[in-house]
User: Which sequence fits this backbone?
């Protein structure tokens, strides 16, 4: 079922008429004010258009690839492994930050995989 197109009306006003209507409308958009004034209680409230955000597949794939190949990510993984193996001394606060960073990177990867329509492993 297709939606019917809206009808547009052009209204010509003298400068003083425009100023008077603008003053009466206040913060309400002029088209809304005129519709409500002309139709009264029967005026339908119009739904705001939904903004659709799209993600380019190629860009998401590049981001995902960089996430796995960037030197900082590789260094982070190596440092986290050294901490787990006990070959790198650290304190509890640093361990919590490493865990939080790891969780954030995992979330980013999962979101990119979802955007690409792929399942993560």
Assistant:
């Amino acid at each position: 079922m297709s939606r019917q197109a809206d009808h547009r009306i052009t209204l010509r006003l003298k400068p003083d008429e425009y100023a008077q209507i603008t003053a009466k409308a206040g913060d309400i958009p002029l088209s809304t004010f005129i519709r409500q004034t002309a139709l009264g209680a029967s005026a339908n409230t119009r739904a705001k258009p939904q903004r659709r955000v799209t993600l380019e597949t190629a860009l998401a794939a590049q981001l995902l690839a960089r996430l796995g190949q960037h030197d900082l990510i590789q260094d982070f993984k190596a440092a986290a492994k050294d901490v787990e193996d006990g070959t790198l001394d650290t304190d509890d606060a640093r361990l919590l930050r490493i865990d939080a960073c790891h969780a954030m990177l995992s979330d980013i990867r999962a979101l990119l995989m979802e955007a690409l329509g792929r399942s993560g492993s």
Summary: The chain has two domains: 9-52, 57-115. The mean pLDDT is 80. The CA atoms of residues 34 and 92 lie 64 Å apart. Helices lie at 15-25, 30-39, 57-69, 71-85, 92-115.
